[in-house]
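Blinded run. Sample ID left blank on purpose so nobody reads anything into the name before looking at the predicted structure. Input follows.
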Amino acid sequence: MSVIVQFFAAPDDASAASALQTGPRRAFESLSFGNFDPEEAVVEWECLLSGGSFEELVEAGEPRLIVGEDDDGGIVFAMSSRLFAALAEAERSELRDAAAAWSLQRAEDGEVIDTEIAEVILSNLAAFASRARRQGHDVYCWVG
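Blinded prediction complete.
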């Protein structure tokens, strides 16, 4: 799998949607990662950090699509407010535990995400969410 994933902060859905064609780097502060399914990951992270079940979150429409294209085009989706708050408020030990659990879940599905890399992803994203919250922005994800 070769996927570019960029989480970015934007003031609202309309602004976030503008990132669809070119990605968020030109207009928004962003974090880049690769090689995991971010739509699945945000639901798994929310389950690990806030509780609830994967199925319940998907049935509730998470993650919420802002704009997308068919035929493997890019998409922009919003991080749920619950996950956003959980990341922004998470203690280092919570992030470490969630990263280990996420790495194990991915391994059970045949996807290798090293625990240390998972911890870097979640720790960086938690710091990013905290900054976005202070600026009054929400966190979105662009996949291109």
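Unblinding after everyone has recorded impressions. The longest helix spans residues 115-134.
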